[in-house]
Design a protein that fits this description.
By secondary structure, the protein is α/β, with parallel strands linked by helices. 45% of the residues lie in helices and 27% in strands. The protein has one domain: Collagenase (Catalytic Domain). A hairpin with a 3-residue loop joins β3 and β4. The structure holds zinc ion.
């Protein structure tokens, strides 16, 4: 998996690159053919009512996290979105579009309208984000001064 971080501030870019590389390794995605794009955006929370988002095309996966996040919430949001990146890279979660209609599939089954809290990919991400975020936090703390 190639990693591309889009960020103007060089210190932040280095941090996001380290976070992405760590998660790619932990999630065993190094051999994935997808390119992972990482962005940090102002006001994502007010624009989308989310701390982070993940979306994809045929060859690319993008994750975006709110730039105002700090401390553990930054690692937790990043880990959560990286778990979605893994679901996409493995072909388990697919998000697409037919005309104006957004379509999603989970484990080969098309998912019709489903409440956020019932989505199995969210349940899995919430289940697995804690350990990945804690490991990520430890890794970054040890490798940055
Ligand atoms: Zn999610």
């Amino acid at each position: 998996m190639n990693i591309r971080v889009l960020c103007r501030k060089s210190k932040k870019k280095v941090l996001l690159e380290a976070m992405a590389a760590f998660c790619v390794k932990q999630l065993n995605l190094e051999k994935s053919r997808y390119t992972l794009w990482v962005l940090s955006k102002n006001d994502l929370v007010s624009d989308l009512h989310a701390d982070g988002v993940c979306f994809h095309g045929p060859n690319d996966i993008a994750i975006c996290i709110d730039s105002s996040l700090t401390g553990l919430s930054k690692y937790t949001t990043f880990a959560h979105e990286m778990i979605h990146a893994k679901q996409i890279a493995r072909g388990v979660l697919k998000m697409g579009r037919i005309g104006r209609r957004g379509i999603m599939s989970w484990r080969g089954q098309e998912v019709k309208a489903m409440a956020y809290e019932e989505r199995p990919w969210e349940a899995q991400a919430f289940r697995e984000q804690g350990k990945l975020a804690a490991d990520l936090h430890t890794f970054i703390s040890r490798n940055t001064k």
